[in-house]
Amino acid sequence: MRLEQLDVLGYDRAFFHIDDTASSFTYYTFAESWPRSFISTWDIIGLRRDASSIFEVRLMHIEEEMLNWPDFEALQDAPGYIEVTPPKFQALISFFESVLSGHSFSSTNIGTFFRPMTIQDFAALHYPQPLMAADLGYCYRYFSPEIGKQDEQISFLCLPHWSAQGRVSQLSTLTFTTFDRQRLEDPFFNPVDANGLGKMSFNLQSLEEFIVLLKKVSVS
Q1: What residues make up the domain containing 177?
Q2: With the C-alpha atoms ordered 56, 144, 183, 157, is the resulting torsion angle positive or negative?
């Protein structure tokens, strides 16, 4: 299992209604072993790196029926998660490790940029009450190293939930959520149901810590 650029697999951005042709994002999805005509769900990772080694990453889950919605725009309307099996998750880790190829860092702990969310954190971020207990221990607040970002935006991620007895075909999700802090002023705002929020920005050190976090829940 591996991630490939969309064009390598015969897709283009227009097929997925990704309207950002002027951006420097590159989009990837998993190379499946069956013909394209049998595929009806796509999990897409967007990656952009600027001159100061800030990485912007987008996650989008797109189903075939969404492509027929009137005015569907993936960047605004796609849920901010990807579905992964254990082999796909390992491929994702390898993908991010390749992004850091040639760099050597020493951090091995979680806590500088990612901190486990508490029940109080969930409540403060309008997280749905029924999901709190199930996601406790799997979700982390992300504190961006970029100046000003922590004051303007809130970011968190939720890692896959694996079953110890599950097979390699078990399915779980990796979710990114980033939104403007002022949205919390709306008592009806629900970050779990809001689409178009699946993005995060990393520097070299926070991306490395993100990879360490992924490895903590990997299934070989």
Answers
A1: 3-216
A2: positive
